[in-house]
Amino acid sequence: MQTRPIDNALYESYSDDIPDLLKKIYAARAVTETQLSLSLPYLLKPDFDQLNIALELLEKSILEDQRILIVGDFDADGATASVVAIKALRLMGARYVDFLVPNRFKHGYGLSPEIVNEAKAEKEPHLIITVDNGISSNEGAALARSFGIDVIITDHHLPPTELPNANAIINPNLSGCDFPSKNLAGVGVCFYLFSSLKTHLDGLGYFEEQKIKVPDLRELLDLVALGTVADVVKLDQNNRILVSEGLKRIRQKFCSKGILAILELTKRPIESLQASDLGFTVAPRINAAGRLSDISQGIRCLLSEDINDARRYASNLEEFNIKRREEQSRMQDEALAIVKSQSIDESQFAIVLYNENWHQGVVGIVAGKLKETYQCPCAVFAKADDVLKGSIRSIPDVHIKDLLDLIERENPKLIEKFGGHAMAAGLTIQPDNFEEFKDAFTKAITKHLKGKKPIIELLTDGTLDASEITLQNAELLRQASPWGQGFEEPIFYGDFELLEQRVVGEKHLKCNLKLVGTNTVLEGIAFFQEKLQSKKVRVAYKLNVNAFRGNESLQLMIESIE
User: Fold this and answer.
1) What's the CA gap between 400 and 424, in Å, rounded?
2) From the centroid of its chain, how far is CA 444?
C-alpha cells in the first residue's frame, strides 16, 4: 500500500470552513478550492473546432424537415449519447429523428460501410450524426458522403492521423480543438453539441417563430451522468459538475423512466444514489444488451416515456445481465486455467489469450479481470465469423492506443483495424496472425517498460484514528461526491483484530474488526473474499453509510485485507 502525498501549500490554501479530513483528501488529489465548485455556471463553455459548421447543418436539417439518423455505439456511453441526441432534437422540433446502432456481431464498431449501406437502404437519411464513435470511420464516412448523406461526427476517442471526410467533427481531442477538458465522454460531447444548438436556434428567434417552448436541456443531465460514469472517464471538474447535476435529478426522480425502472428492479434506494450505483448497477444492465444482443433494447429503455414500458425493457435487460454474468464467469475460469497452464507468473509483461468458444461481447470484461489479477496489459480474443476480435485492458504505465500505433507501423498488415484510448482498446486480426500478434504485443510492452514490470500499489489516504472512523465522516465523504476515475474515493488503512467473520451470499465476507490499540469495534464487508485464518489483519477500506430499513450505520467497505 502507498499513501498519497499531500500538497502542503494547497492544504494551507483552503478556507477554514472545509473540514480538516477533506482538506487532506483534496490536497492529495491536487484539487484547488475553485475546482471544488460543482454548480452549473462553472461548466466550461463550448469551444469546439468545427462547431459552427455542425450548427448550421443541424439548423438546415431541422428547418427543412430532413431525416436525421443517429448512429451510436453498443455500450452505455453510446446508448446514453444516442438518447440525448434523439430527445434533444425532438425537443427542438425535429420531426424525423431515428437511430441505428451497429450490432457488435454483424457490423462491427463505428460508422462502418456495412452500417451505412443498411442506413441508406432502411432509413434513407439526409444527415447521419455519430455519437461516441466515428473518429476512425474513414471508409464509412466516405461512403455516406458518396451517397449524398451529410455526416456530423461526435466522438471523444483519440483521432487517427487521417481524419474521416465528414462535414463536421466535434471531438475535444482533435488537434487544434481549444476545448479545455479532453476528458468528456461521448455523451458529454453530444450534450455540448445540442446545448450549443439550442443557444444557436434561440438566438435566431427560432423557438418563438415556431411556437416551441425553449427546451431546458438540463432535463438530459441524468443521461449525461450515467454515460460519463459508465465510460470511466476522468472526473475532472467539468465532468464532476455534469455527474453531480445528473445525480441530483435522479434522486429527485426528474429523470429517464428507464433509469428509474432499472433502479427499482435492483432495489437501489434512489434518494441516496451515488455515482458508483450508476457504474455498478445501471450501466452493466445497459451494457449487457450490447454485449450479448443489441444495445437498442437499452436505448429504448432509456427513451421510454411510460414507466410500464420502461419496466418491461428493464426486465429484458436484467435477463441479458444474468446471462452476461454466467458467460463471464465461465470465460474467466477458462482464461485463468489457460494462464496457469502456461506458467504465467507475476513477472509477466503481457497476457494474450484466445479461445474459439469465447463470446466476443464479454472479452473486454475478462481482459479487465485478468489485468487486475496479474497487473499487466491483457488482450483477450474471440472468434467472429472469419476473423478474431479482441479487447485490451492496460495499466497506467502503458498507453495502449499509442502502443498499437507503434505495432502497426512496425508490423504492417498484422492488425486489420483497431481503436481506443490510453487504458482500453479493441482490435481485429486474422486467425493466422494470432501467434505473431501475441509475440509482437509482448515484445513491444516489454521494450516499453524497459524490462522492468511496474509495481502497482493500492493508493490510500493513510490511517485514521478511532475518533475519525465515524458515521459523520462517512456522511461527509458522501456529501463530497461524486467520486470516480481521476477523483478517487478515499481509501484508508489500518491494523485490526478480526473478532468475527462469516460468509454471506456464498462469496462475501462480513466481519467485526477491532482497531488495534483501541476498544473500537467496527463492522466491515469484503466482496468476493474467503474466510481468513489469521486474527491480525491489515485492512484497506472506504467509509460507507449503510442504510437498512430506514436506519443508517457505519460500515467499512473493505478493498483489501491481508
Assistant:
1) 7
2) 27
